[in-house]
Design brief:
With 324 residues, the chain is mostly helical. The chain folds into two domains: 3-215, Cation efflux protein transmembrane domain (Alpha-lytic protease prodomain-like, Up-down Bundle), CATH 1.20.1510.10; 223-321, 2-Layer Sandwich (Alpha-Beta Plaits), CATH 3.30.70. The chain has ten helices and three strands. It has helices at 3-35, 38-64, 78-107, 117-144, 147-178, 188-215, 223-232, 266-283, 299-302, 310-321, and strands at residues 237-248, 251-261, 288-296.
Length: 324
């Protein structure tokens, strides 16, 4: 698949998510106002933020695909992390509003909720759509190693559970209407809204942690050791150290130092660095690898310019067999 076709598919997935968010937000808002359900209104607000998040993801995917330039030598991938951070702030703000309204209805200003068939219909539709788009986003995120699409997928997958919670709240209100002695279940809608807020806060905490770690260039735990070990196994490499790893959107950048025999030729060193790149790209697919070669006194120097080692002879033989 070419780079252009990959960009087109990523943008298409992000745009479909925006379209789905528009439909769900409008559907939930209309039914929530008609039924006076705080759980549904909370879900409408949540879907409204989903719409903002999906739109930001679409923009972030478009911008992050721009090639590196002089002002951005590592590319524009960090825009995905900034988008996720802003999304987290929106989610936390919405959670605060939901908690405030739920507590107000529970203890100060109770409101009657109409648990109509439309309320159940909108939440059931929401679950079906969220299942499909979260799968679609996860698939694209794994395929293209896109943090923005992965964050979007994680966000929408939690919508499934929050929608299920709202349905439980509506069921509680319905049961209280027909069964005497269960008036306390009228509060089920507000309790469901609090549970939605808890889910949103939980997801926001996970997303914010990952976003901040990416913006601070935090490398995955143990990744530097794996890179060093893989590079050290390459023929001709004596030691691999000073490993630095950072991510910019879907691309990982690896800088490292490799110690080699000081008597090896420039071509031999170049071949070794190419093998290091291949080895590291098996660990991190598509990684951008930069290797700085450092010399040490090798066997040939110690022997006064004597015969090369078997490893050096093998490298020389492979070089002689290369075309041109």
């Amino acid at each position: 698949m070419t780079h252009q076709s990959a960009q087109k598919e990523k943008r298409s997935v992000a745009l479909l998510s925006v379209v789905a968010a528009v439909g769900l937000t409008a559907f939930k808002l209309i039914v929530g106002l008609l039924t006076n359900s705080l759980g549904l209104l909370a879900e409408a607000a949540h879907s409204g933020l989903d719409l903002v998040a999906a739109a930001m993801t679409y923009v972030a995917v478009r911008v992050s695909d721009k090639p590196a330039d002089r002002s951005h030598p590592y590319g524009h991938g960090k825009i995905e992390n900034l988008s996720a951070l802003f999304e987290t702030l929106l989610l936390l703000a919405t959670s605060g509003w939901i908690i405030y309204e739920a507590i107000d209805r529970l203890f100060f200003h109770p409101a009657e909720v109409q648990a109509s068939i439309w309320a159940f219909l909108v939440m059931g539709t929401s679950i079906i759509i969220d299942i499909n788009r979260s799968k679609m986003l996860y698939r694209a995120a794994r395929k293209y190693n896109s943090q923005a699409l992965e964050a979007d997928a994680l966000h929408f997958s939690t919508d499934i559970w929050s929608s299920a919670v709202v349905i439980l709240g509506l069921i509680g209100v319905t049961v209280a209407r027909f069964l005497p002695g269960l008036d306390w279940m009228h509060a089920a809608d507000s309790i469901a809204a609090l549970m939605v807020a808890a889910i949103v806060i939980y997801v926001s905490a996970q997303l914010s942690w990952r976003t901040i770690a990416a913006l601070l260039d935090s490398a995955p735990q143990g990744m530097a050791e794996k890179v060093s070990q893989a590079a050290s196994k390459v023929e001709g490499v004596i030691d691999a150290h000073a490993v630095r790893i950072r991510a910019s959107g879907p691309i990982w950048f690896i800088d490292m130092h490799a110690t080699m025999d000081g008597d090896c030729t420039l071509n031999e060193a170049h071949i070794a660095t190419e093998r290091i790149e291949q080895a590291l790209q098996e660990i991190i697919k598509g990684a951008d690898v930069t290797v700085h070669v450092e010399p040490v006194e090798g066997p040939r120097s110690q022997a006064g310019g004597g015969a090369p080692t078997k490893e050096r002879e093998e490298i020389k033989r492979r070089m002689d067999e290369r075309p041109g």
